[in-house]
Amino acid sequence: MRSVQVLRNVVTNYLRFFAGGLISFLLTPVMVHLLGDGSYGLWVTVFSLTGYFGLVDQGIRPSLVRYVSRHRAAGDDDALAQTVNSAVALYSAAGAVTLAVTVVVAANFGHWFHIDPALLPSARGAVALAGLSLALGFPLGVFGATLSGLQRYDLANLIGVGIAVLRAIVFVVILRTGGGIVELAWGSLAANLVGHIVTLLTVRRLLPRLPYGRRWVNGATLRQIGAYSGFAFMGALATSIAFQTDSLVITGFIGAAAVTPFALAAGLVDNVRTLVYSATWVLAPTASEMETLGETEPLQAMLIAGSRYSVLLSWPVLAALVIFGGGLLSTWVGEKYRDAALLLTVLAVPTLLSLPQSAASSMLYGISRHKGVVTLSLLNALLNLGLSLLWVKPWGLLGVALGTAVPLALIGGVATALYAARAMHLDARRYLWEGMGQPGLVCLAFIVPALAVQQLWHPTGWVPLGASVAGCWLLFAAAAWRWGVGPVERRRWSEALPRAFGLSRRPAVTEARS
After folding, report:
1. Most confident of 219-223, 245-249, 435-439
2. What H or E segment, with its residue span, contains residue 104?
3. What pTM was computed for the model?
4. How is the chain split into domains, by residue range?
């Protein structure tokens, strides 16, 4: 049933992704126009800054997912109870630290950033509420990670979609009634708490006999989680430096209003990143299971397949952003933002190399070979920050974008691919060719006609853009089905999809062998 479970998780991840993407796509223009460049840029800056408070969560969560899945598979209820309760203790400590740091950041926000004095009270209030939301979410977040460890991404995704819809409704009501970023922060806090409570109740239903209390907080378990979490935390820190400091650099050297065009371009690329992560996130517990069973060749096959599917998923979308970016930005948020297409291109091109490595990163975390990934991520992050600071003065927003793009291509792309192949004992040439080269050639079926359409038509507006992308994508889909996916995979997934959602009563014997 392994493929069935993975497929169910991936499909529901995509349902959540597309629902969240649609909500963000519709909500962003409303926020930009009703808040204005200054307040919207400040909103992005505040949540980029408070995102660093969540790094501890990103450190502990992967370890919790790994050990919950292992203990659950082994039927070790005592170890499972110790893991969950020990994680609650760590998360509670992280929440206390977050509250303390929040007070310091809120008090000094005006000294650290170039902020319009009229917006300073709102900025401090939003920082305080965002920090409070994270602090409360740390111990409650244990139960979301537990759902992931139980491989019940389907339930987690249903809850996530519901909360995203609720948050969007709350935001629209607040904006339409004249509220600002402080009121939005209150709305975000309330929606997050509702999501945590629903998740807690869901875990209690799945694990009704799971005990809670201090007696289950085990020193050895704390050390085990801490050892794994230390490197995971560094990886999360590196990722945040790479993708969240840009808005802080822009605010510090140019001003909060300049964040808006950059955030629009970066947000579109980040959506593509999430598109791929939605599939690769679920590979960590599966890789852990394979490693435990000594299945080396299936691990290597999953690494290549993960990279190949990542290319087929993301490259046409990234190509569309590069080719049709000007028309998209003009249609989406207004003609004044068309020039942000250059930033979009600079950020999208290196992502072509880095995104296919997300499957490798997830799997290496799953088998506790993530130290090399973390080291490369830190190098990428430090180069990103250094180059952005170096180039922001002479080249402005373009310099910040280039500061992100150069290390992303060289470190996040090329170096990470070579390390993954070595860690998995896989020939690097085979990995690069089968995982990226072959599917990359298939993506030409989208890129070539898209370039022709842009050259001849220059589509702007939802209908012309939609028709252009849809037509090119249909050509690509036909090519991908014929040359991008082999006959064995087509048969396997066509059989697994109905079973994943209870639409087939065929026994899973064939599935298990595959």
Report:
1. 435-439
2. helix 77-112
3. 0.69
4. 2-509
